Predict the structure.
Amino acid sequence: MQEQQPEQYSFDFLNETAEIVTEAGDELGIKLGKFAGPLDLLLFLIRQEQANIFDIPISTITDEYLKYIRLMRSLDIAVAADFLVMAAQLIEIKSKMLLPRDPMAPDDEEIDDPRKELADRLLEHEKFKAAAHMLYERTTIEQAVFKRGSIDSDENNLEISATVFDLITVFQKVLARQKEEIELEIEREEISLAEMIRRLNKRIFDETEIRLLSFFEEMHNRRELVTAFIAVLEIVRTESVKLVQKNTFGDILLRKVEVSS
Amino acid sequence: MTEIDKDVESDDVAEAPARSVGELVAVVEALMFVADEPITVRALSEITGEDKDSVLAALEALTEEYKNRESGLQIREIGGGWQLATRTELHETIRQYLKTKPSAKLSLAALETLAVIAYKQPVTIPEILEIRGVQSASAIKTLLEKRLIITKGHKEAAGRPMQYGTSKDFLVQFGLKDLGDLPSIEDFQDLVNQ
Amino acid sequence: MTEIDKDVESDDVAEAPARSVGELVAVVEALMFVADEPITVRALSEITGEDKDSVLAALEALTEEYKNRESGLQIREIGGGWQLATRTELHETIRQYLKTKPSAKLSLAALETLAVIAYKQPVTIPEILEIRGVQSASAIKTLLEKRLIITKGHKEAAGRPMQYGTSKDFLVQFGLKDLGDLPSIEDFQDLVNQ
C-alpha cells in the first residue's frame, strides 16, 4: 500500500451501480461506499470477474479488493475494521494457495482448498441477502392490509406496552438522570465558605444593597444555605456591611456602610 | 418494486370507475372499517367517485346483509355518518373480554418504577425515591394491582421499611425464564451508546 | 385486578353455554373486531366457554363466509392469532381515504440483520457478525426500538452474550402465521446458485 500514483480501477467507482443500495444514514460509519460490508464487496468483485464462488480466482480478487480499500483511503473514507480483517484473510488464503501441494496427499481437493471456508461464508451471506429481500417483499404486501380504525373500547394511548428493551432503556435513563443530579450536587457542595464570602462581597459591592431572603433562596441545598448563613455573619462582623430591617417583619437588607460618614 | 406510492398523487377523483355493485359494497365496508369515526355518505361518494344514491344503496344493502347473516357486527347510521360496530346483544361478552385482557401497558412513571425494582430488587420505597428522584407511591400501587411486583418482607434497617421485588407474572408478561434472563446494562452498552 | 393468571390455569371451561353454532360465529366475529391485536384461539375459547375445536371451526366458517360474499374485509391467521383486516386489493382507495403513505421501510442493513435473527434465533451479536461480515449494533438497536426483535436471555457460553429473537410484532408486520410460516432458508440456496 505504498505507491501513491493513480491506479487503474477495473470498475468505475463513481458510476457503477452495485446491487447494494443502502439508504440508512445511521450505518454510514460502517459502510464503505455502496458496499454494506466486506462480503458484499467480495461478491461484487467476484461477479464482476464473472467468476464462480466455488472457484474464486483468489489472486485477482485479492488485488482488486486491496485496490478498492486503497481507493477508499485516498478518498479519505475511513475504512472499517471489518474490511481490513477480510483483507488479511484474503492475503492469507492467497499465500496458502501459492504453497506447492503435497504430491503424496490424497486427491481430495474439497478438504484441502483454502478457499472453501470463504466460499461457504459467501454462500451463507447470499442466502440471507435473499431472505432479506423476501422480508422486504412481504412487508410491502403487508402494508396493503389495514387494521380497523380506533373504536371506543380501545385503551387510550397514554399507556405504553412495554418490552424488556423498554425496561433496560428506561432504567438506563433513570440512572443517567440520577448521576447528573449527583454530579450537580457535588459541584454545588464544593462552594467553600471563602468562596461564599467572596461572592457575597461582590454582590453587595455591585448592588449596594441586597435582600437577605432572596440571597438565601438562591442556595441549592441545605448545606449551601448553612454556608451562606455563616458567610453573612462573617461579613457583617468583619466588613463594612450592616444588616438593616426597616420595619418589623420587613425584608432584611444587607447594605454597604458609607465610609465617608 | 412498490407500486403503492402511485396513489398518493391522485387526490382528485378520476372518471367514475367501472365498478360493480358488489365491488362498491366491498369498498364501502372496508372504508367504514378503517375509519376512526362514522363516515358520511358524502365522503364515501367522494372517495369512490360514485354518486350518493349508489353509496346509500350500497350502505343499505350492507346493513341488510349483516342483519341477515346474524353477524356479530352491525352497520349503524349515527351522528350523520355510518359505522361498523359490534351488535348490542354481545356487549356483555365483549365487556368481559376487555376486562380480563392481560395488559402490560404502563405509564412512563410506572415503567420507570418497575425498571428500578426489577434491577435493584429487593428495594424499598425510599431507595426507589433516591434513584428516581421523584415519589413513586402511585406507580407502586399500580404495579401491585397489576401484580407485576410483590412485597418481599421488611428490610432490617431503621423503620423496617417494606421491600419490593418483581413477581412471577412479571416474568410471564415480559417473556423471561427467570431474572437472570434480564439483559444487563453491559449487554446494551454498545447498542445504546451509539 | 388483572386476571392474567386465569388463562394459565383454567384450561377446562365453565359450564358449556347453550349456544348455537351461528351464535358462536357471531361472538367470535365481534371479539376479533374489538381486539386491537390478533386474538388467539385459546383466548376466544376462554371467553366464550367453548372448546378450542368449536372456536376453530367457527373461525374457519367465518373466513369462508367473508371470502364467499366478496367482502371488503378478510379474516386472517397471523402472529399466532386471528384478525379482521381489509382485503389487499383495496389498498389504493383506503390509502387515499386515510391519506397515509406506506410507512418507512427498513434499511437494507436492518433487513439483513432481521433475516439472520429470524432464521438463526436465538442468536448473539457475534454470531450475526459472522454471517453478515459487518457490525450490526445500530441495526439491532433499530430493530429493538421498532419492536421487531426481543431479547431471549443470555447464552450459556463465555461472556454470556445476550441472545435475540423475533417478536410477535415481527410476525404481524411480515404477514406470518408463525415462524414455521417462513420459507426454509435452504430454499434460498437454489436462488443463489443460479
